[in-house]
Write a structure and sequence with these properties.
This protein is mainly alpha-helical. It is built from two helices and no strands. It is elongated, with a radius of gyration of 18 Å.
Length: about 80
């Protein structure tokens, strides 16, 4: 089990919120880095169908990032 659940972590709303915020930031950074890596590969992709699929994946990652940020903003303002 995750170390965060030891010693009553689950009963500490402030700790849960902090960890959730940190994890959210990590996931956003990972998604963004993946999008950049895909974009940097585009010039090397000569197959039009493969290139289009990679571009669609980059767009999908951007949408996911936007949705995650929107959700986190809504959750923060709902408190």
């Amino acid at each position: 089990m995750d170390d965060h659940y030891e010693d009553g972590w689950a009963a500490d709303p402030a700790a849960r919120a902090r960890v959730a915020h940190e994890r959210h930031d990590q996931v956003i950074q990972q998604l963004f880095a993946t999008g950049l890596a895909l974009q940097s590969a585009l010039p090397r992709i000569h197959d039009p169908e493969a290139r289009e699929r990679v571009m669609q994946s980059v767009v999908a990652l951007d949408v996911i990032i936007h949705e995650m940020r929107t959700t986190m903003t809504e959750l923060r303002t709902a408190r």
